[in-house]
Amino acid sequence: MYTYLNFKDDAEYLAFKGVGVREIGKSVLGNPIYAFETGPEPDVIITGGIHARENISVYAAMMTVYKALRRGIDNIAVVPLLNPDGLLLVEKGAFFEGSEKLSALCDGDFSLWKANADAVDLNVNFNADFGKGVRNVFSPAAMNYVGPYPESEPETRAIRDYTLGLMPSLTLSFHASGREIYWYFGQSGALCERDRKVAELFADITGYTLVDGNMGSAGGYKDWCIRKLGISSLTLELGMGRHPLPDESFSLEWQRLLKVPETASSVGAAIREGNFDAGIIKK
C-alpha cells in the first residue's frame, strides 16, 4: 500500500532534486496539499488521491513527477494527493484523528472510504451540475455525499483556485478502477471534437476503454474544468478489480501509463499554442 509516509518521502526527494513544490491549500484537518511543478508555466495539471481509497492514483501521480523529472518535461503540474485526510483514514482506520465521529458511517471499516474528513466526497463537490449526479447523496457518508453547497470543502477550493491561477490547457484526473477514460460533460461543436480526439490519444497509449457520455455523474473536477473553463479534461480510471486494490496493481498499472507524461506535455502545449487539430499535433 502506498502510504502517507511514502508520499512525504517522495515529496522531500523531489524537492531535493529541484522540482518546484508549492503548498496550494490545507485539508479539513490541516494537512498540506502540494503541487509539484516541473517548470514555470505548466500547460497540464494532473491530479490524484481525490478519493481516499484510491491510493493507486496517488502512486501513479507521483511516478508521473519522477518520469517528467527524468525526461526533462518542463510543463506539467501534479497534485498527487488532494485528500490527505482520507488517505490517512484508509491507512490508519480507527487509530487516525477524527475517525471517532466518522466510524458510524462505515461500521468502523475505513478500507472503502472515499470522502474527506467532513464525510464529503470531493469529486461531487464542484460547481458543475452540483447535486444532479445519479449516485449523489445529501447527508454525510463514506462516499457520494455532495456537501452542503458547491465547493464547500477546503480541498475542493484548493484545486479550484490553483487551476484558475494556472489556467492549463489540459487536465488529467487519476482515479480507480476500470481502465476507462471519461472525457465528456456536455461539450458541443469544435470543443467536443477536440476533446474526443484528446481522449482517443490517451486511450491509444494506455489501452483503456474510451467512454462516451458522463454515465450520470456530475460535480467532479473534470466536469468543472469542462463546464466552467472550457479545458480539455479527462478522468483516467486506473487498475482493475474491487477496492482495496492489491499492492501489485501499482507496478502493473504503471506499465500502461509510461507514455502519459510525454503525451500530456505534447498535447497540452499543442492546445495552448493552437497546434492541436483533429488529434494531430502539428510540428
Count of distinct structural domains: 1
Shape: globular
| Named CATH topology | Aminopeptidase
Broad CATH class: Alpha Beta
Note the gap between the termini. 41 Å
What structural class do helix, strand and pairing data support? Answer: alpha/beta
Uncertain ranges: none
Please trace the helix and strand order, writing H or E for each element: HEEEHEHHHEEHEHEHHEE
Q: How would you describe this structure in keywords?
A:
single chain; alpha/beta; Aminopeptidase; eight-stranded mixed β-sheet; two-stranded antiparallel sheet; globular
Question: Overview of this structure, please?
Answer:
The protein is of the alpha/beta class and 283 residues long. It has a single domain (4-281), classed as Aminopeptidase (3-Layer(aba) Sandwich). The chain contains 9 helices and 10 strands. Strands 1-2-4-3-5-8-6-7 form an 8-stranded mixed beta sheet, sandwiched between helices. A two-stranded antiparallel ribbon has the order 9-10. The mean pLDDT is 95.
Secondary structure topology:
Blueprint: H1 4-16, E1 20-26, E2 32-37, E3 44-47, H2 55-71, E4 76-79, H3 84-92, H4 99-102, H5 154-166, E5 170-176, E6 180-182, H6 189-206, E7 209-211, H7 221-229, E8 232-238, H8 248-256, H9 260-273, E9 276-277, E10 280-281
